[in-house]
Amino acid sequence: MCVPYRSLKRDSLDVLVLEWVLQVKSYKLTLDRRRCVGCQICSLVCPKDAVTVVKQFGFGGRVLKSKVDVDLAKCTFCGICDVTCLFGAVTVAVNGLRNTLLISKESFPKIDRAISLNSKECSKDCFECETVCPWQLIKVSRVGFDGKPVKVFSELSPTEKRRVKVTVDIQREYCPTCKICEVKCPSKVLKVKKIFEGKIVINTNKCPIGCHACVDVCPVPNVLTVNAAGKVDVAEAHCVYCGACKNVCPASDDGALVVVRVKVAHRRVRSGVWNRVLERLTSVQDGVKELKAVASLKKRDMLIKRLRDEVDL
């Protein structure tokens, strides 16, 4: 990348902005601190080690979510942090447009946020998914046969109720796929596949006495809780394996808190960059397993194509 004509870094309570201005191009990275949860992902995937995560403490020494910082001298505005951010807190733009060159050139896969919903099967008087979403990413709306919004469903006649149309809008780009909405959906019409599969283990015997830092910073409600004995419990069904808890754990190096990612949901792509990122996100062993699985799928596709060609002959 060329030497910038002008560079800028602006950091505030709500946003971090990095800019490079060249003769014909301008690059801009924006980190929305209101969406950022201080997790590990961007610091793990950055190929230039430009991202650092710093512990923060509030009043009385209370642990706050970690603060993410980006080194302007190291950042190349490649967009990998944008693509992989679970919470959609990072955007990288070139000349004002979101940079998707990595994906369009198949240099990096698109992370798969597999969320499906058949709104026709939704109960017409239910707002459960909208209510339970921790980030308010779901909006349920209803319109009557006349095309006007339904204000009070219970006041409609039976005929009017049958003709109500339900629409469910989900801001997928910000969804970390915690699956709370799926579990709470009474009609079971909402399906969510986790981006990361993995394991979180807390060895309470190694936890410092009275320390609940992991509970304080966990972005998903009730994944980490303190039980009656003062120990930390894990409800792993909704854990997104972001690693925010591990960042603040004072004894994570001693094995008190372990976060392991074994699989990443993504579109298939052949990329050396992705292979290296996969090793950082998971482990060398788990990365090799996934690459072997992808290779097997490619062999299967080649075999199917060959069989089809023979049938056509």
List keywords for this structure.
313 residues, Alpha-Beta Plaits, 25% helix, 10 helices, 15 strands, two-stranded antiparallel ribbon
**H and E string:** EEEHEEHEEHEHEHEHEEHEEHEHH
Radius of gyration from the alpha-carbon trace, in angstroms:
23 Å
Strand composition percent? 25-35%
Counted by DSSP, the helix tally is: 10
pLDDT under 50 segments (min length 5)? 284-289, 291-297
Task: Based on Cα principal axes, name the global outline.
Answer: globular
| Number of DSSP strand runs | 15
Major sheet size, sense and barrel closure: 5 strands, antiparallel
Strand arrangement, major sheet: 1-2-3-6-7
- Mean pLDDT, to the nearest integer, reads 87
How many structural domains can be distinguished in the coordinates?
A: 4
SS-based class: alpha+beta
CATH hierarchy class name of the largest domain: Alpha Beta
